[in-house]
Amino acid sequence: MPDHGPRRRVIGVVDSDSFVKWGAATLSRATGWDVDLVLIESDVSATDRQVDIALLHTAFEGRTVRRLSLRGLVDLIRTEQPDGVFVSTRGPVAEVVISELLALGRATRPVLLTGLPGISIPAKWKGIFLRAQADVFVLHSHREVAAYRELALTHGVEPAFALATLPFLTDTATESPAEPAPRTRVVFAAQATVPADRGDRLRILSWLRTLANRHRDLDVVLKVRGLAGDPQTHHEHYPFDTLLTGPTPDNLRVATGSMAVHLGHAAGLVTVSSTAAIEAIAAGVPVILLDDFGVDPALINTVFEGSGLLASKDDLMAARFRHPNPDWLQQNYFHPAEEDDWIQRSEAAFAARDLGTLPIRPRARQSRGGMLRTGWERRRAFGRADTSALGTVAFVIGRPLQIARRLVRRARGVQPAERQPIASRRLAPIETETPVRAPHGARHRTAR
Questions:
Q1: Given this model, what pLDDT does residue 436 score?
Q2: Domain shared by 71 and 209, yes or no
Q3: Would you give the distance in Å from CA 184 to the centre of its chain?
Q4: Which domain holds residue 185?
Q5: Using an 8 Å Cβ cutoff, are 89 and 100 in contact?
Q6: pLDDT grade, residue 192 (50/70/90)?
Q7: Which pLDDT tens digit goes with each residue over 209-262?
Q8: pLDDT digits (tens, 9 = 90+) for 147-157
Q9: CA distance 322 to 308
Q10: Percentages of the chain per state (helix, strand, coil), in multiples of 5
Q11: Residues 327 and 347 both lie in one domain
């Protein structure tokens, strides 16, 4: 085993936009390690523009991130033998990467770190299931660690959960520009899947139009992770930038870019459920969590119960933003930094690896299918980026079966669990306001 000297070397593996941001920011907090970052190719891998945005305010800002296939990644790890690999990818990719790197053998395989970015309440079995063999599993609040540990035990697995402060918070909170920017911006943090219904998303646009019309002194920014057609962690059926059509107030616009930069100008942040709310709290920016669609696990907003941030469209249109209840903070992402233990747990795993005593945790997946199942999961994870013969054969056999199964379920009126209707409040018809006439030929403004 190579001698790495006193500093450990860890390579981060990232794929989609949100995982690039989280992986780069988390590794930037490990100041005692030598860290590198590579991007593994799949159908939703971040574009170069998305990568550049995600790396802002991290140790990787301005650096070129290598793009590798799965085989290229395995070859890199076999050759360079880093102490650890931080797998910051979507679950299906994480499962394949972890399995492939464990197959390198006890003497060569690195310590495998992984985790979940952003808000991970309610705890979901799939998040554990796909990452169960990792040596360190990073979460971001005492509440998350307790919930995931309880869920894992009910399924008979024991991942090594570890606590880490959300890596976006410190940078946002401690930035102090020489000349503070005027805070005249209201930022709506959009999400790809919440709310999922087209009508609900149109309602949000109506409320933002009303806010912009009533408060001409505010710059209302609809902050999206990517524009329509950009790859994202979760597929967005109704991108906000395509729904915002027709005349709009000249102080309402769509924007991409760094959330930290937007928060530096923000008088308030509004969202249905987004980690951006946690970033805003850390930056001292008041927040509204819209509860007009209900408070439900499927909306990923139950974690904000008791925070004092849940509010209605009426509060938004009156610009009544608020700060969180202090009692809510300690259990939800704002614990003291000295309670973080992910670095210590990682160091213990490095030491066990050096001694040859690092165990291989059992897989949670017990499904049948042998090699064909392995090929199918790989093709599902990497899409067209998987060019293996096994993946191709599994796809040719499995895809027609998958379509047939969906057709049978649809005929029976069965919906997947994640698509079940959400019990939410009954909303009134979309309000209409006297529109502000846009310049001739304009539809809406988009800033990158």
A1: 38
A2: no
A3: 27
A4: 172-332+427-447
A5: no
A6: confident
A7: 999 999 999 999 999 976 666 666 656 778 888 888 888 899 999 998 889 899
A8: 999 999 999 99
A9: 8
A10: 40, 15, 45
A11: no
Q: What mean pLDDT is reported for the chain?
A: 85
How buried is residue 126: exposed, middle or buried, by Cβ count under 10 Å (0-12/13-18/19+)? exposed
In a shared domain, residues 266 and 344 = no
Rounded Cα distance, 435 and 244, in Å? 13
Give every CB contact of residue 333 below 8 A, 6+ residues apart in sequence.
140, 141, 165, 166, 169, 278
Cβ proximity of 56 and 261 under 8 Å: yes
Report CA Rg, the chain. 23
Average pLDDT over residues 59-65: 95
pLDDT at site 446 = 33
Element holding 204 (H helix, E strand): helix 198-214
- Say if 328 falls within a structural domain: yes
pLDDT band at 312 (very low <50, low <70, confident <90, very high): very high
Query: What is the four-CA torsion angle of 197, 199, 205, 208, rounded to 10 degrees?
Result: -90
DSSP 292-321: TT---GGGT-GGGTTSS-EE-HHHHHTT--
Helix, strand or coil, per DSSP, at residue 433 = coil
The two three-digit tokens of residue 409, written as one number:
């379920």
- Rounded Cα distance, 17 and 14, in Å: 8
Strand partners, 222: 188, 254
